[in-house]
Amino acid sequence: KGPADSHEFKAETKKLLDIVAKSLYSEKEVFIRELISNSSDALEKLRYLQTTHSDIVDSGAPLEIHLATDDSKKTFTIQDTGIGMTSDEMVENLGTIAKSGSKAFLESLGEASNADVKSQMIGQFGVGFYSSFMLMFTLSLINPILNLINGHQTEAEGVQRGTKIVIHLKGDCYDFAKEDIIKDVVKKYSNFVGVPIYLNGKKINIVQALWMMDPKDITDDMHEEFYRFIGNVYDKPRYHFMYKTDAPLNIRALFYVPEYKPTMFDLSRETDVSVNLYSRKVMILSKADHILPKWLRFLKGVVDSEDIPLNLSRELLQDSALIRKLRQVLTNRILKFFLDQSKKDEEKYMKFYQDYGLFFREGIVTQPEQEQREDIAKLLRFESSKCPRGQKVSLEEYASRMKAGARDIYYLSAPSRELAETSPYLESLVKKDIEVLFCFEPYDELVLMNLGQFNKKFLKSIENEIASEGKESEKVDDNDPDSLKQDDVDNLITWIKGILGNKAHKVKITKRLASHPCIVTVEEMGSARHFLRTTFAERS
Ligand code: ADP
Ligand code: MG
Fold this sequence. Notes:
The chain is an alpha+beta fold. Helix content is 40%, strand content 15%. Strands 3-4-2-1-5-6 form a six-stranded mixed beta sheet, with helices on one face. Strands 7-8-11-9-10 form a five-stranded mixed beta sheet. Helix 11 (346-366) runs antiparallel to helix 12 (370-377) and helix 11 crosses helix 16. It is elongated, with a radius of gyration of 33 Å. The protein starts with 10 loop residues before the first helix and ends with a helix. Residues 144-153 have low confidence and may be disordered. The structure holds adenosine-5'-diphosphate and magnesium ion (MG). Adenosine-5'-diphosphate is lined by residues 34, 38-39, 41-42, 80, 82-85, 93-94, 100-103, 123-129, 163. Keywords: ATP-binding, Chaperone, Nucleotide-binding. Belongs to the heat shock protein 90 family.
């Protein structure tokens, strides 16, 4: 037991630990995250003891983590000025699988005093340390410590407070002796750990985890910097949205909508969700595609939940009830956020809708629950027969203007406002003072058809309505002096059928038209649309 004491596991133990580590961690690089998290915990414990004890060793030593790479010796070293371990603790905590000294530490503190230090503590499962077994050849725990508080001080006189671990890398892991590689991995996983991390003497992490802060304390500049960092982009956010809750599960989330318009890449469904999942400021998964539905992939941001185990793999994430709950809560909150924004600053919202509204349409077509689809539908905007050109209404506004007892919301698909307004389909409804929404993009019509209902009202295409009205021809009113007689009607229909032959499936009379003499409708449009919808859904 000297300052440079090192401990060897038995060969078979090592083998077992290697298997454990491989089953828990899909990527080798996470050992850096785990070692840093342990150092961070050791530093937090020390920070806590500083508040309760006055006799801390090296009390002036700053709370820091130092990493070092040695490419010629093929080593990776981590050293912290935390609480350290006695030799016994070392054997106990590191030599026993699923033994967490951190958890025991918190338990020893009792409920009252530990709220703050508890919220900072990362480790709890006692398996993180074993991730190093995937890549080391030997491992030295130098000055296995020490003497924080009087009485423990005997073990390594004159050695600096804390823990130092030197990993001698295996042949296929030599990359981790390279500074650039380590730097990237630290940035990826441990950038927001609450203590400074130095790599070969240079500080490499940003310690401000904005999503954990009070929104009041965050300036626009801080948001901008943070957004650029996590989004890997160079513009500004147009919206930011922070959300925090402790029930039904712990969530701290921060999302941004970019100022730039979505690119083809952003629009592609191949593109991953660009939100990273953290637990206690340590990254667990980048591009965590199950914590948000795919159609929200335009958001950049961070979700942190201390309820999520650190060693969660992508596969586990996929079918975890916890993640489903998380996704549901977040999606609802995000929808509410956009709805609020649309009321707060309509002009800004419409600009956003112009750029990003396509994602909402995708959401409606791809989201399975009707309730959530209708929540997304609240964010849609349409021109309508009762609004001046260029002005748009929401489905809620439309519904609020409906006459008492009316059950249908009507829409009309047309390539432009001119064509919509002169459409023969429109006039019969306008005559009855019924508002009609205009769909200028074919996908808008698909979306409304797919939505089916909104607020218990039925969404109806007026084109479809006219095409499918009464299987029989309407009857002629013999008392109407302006109307053709039944004989004339029959002759006319026979004549038209003769001219058109099998170009027309059916010829019939209607009273719906006012100024247009006739109209061509597509009876099978329903199945044509169905076909379009399934191809759309398949792509998605
Ligand atoms: P966990 O962090 O979940 O407790 P680990 O396997 O990562 O599990 O670590 C096991 C224990 O070893 C920790 O709980 C802690 O008591 C101890 N430990 C690990 N690294 C350090 C360190 N750098 N300084 C002090 N104690 C440490
Ligand atoms: Mg740990």
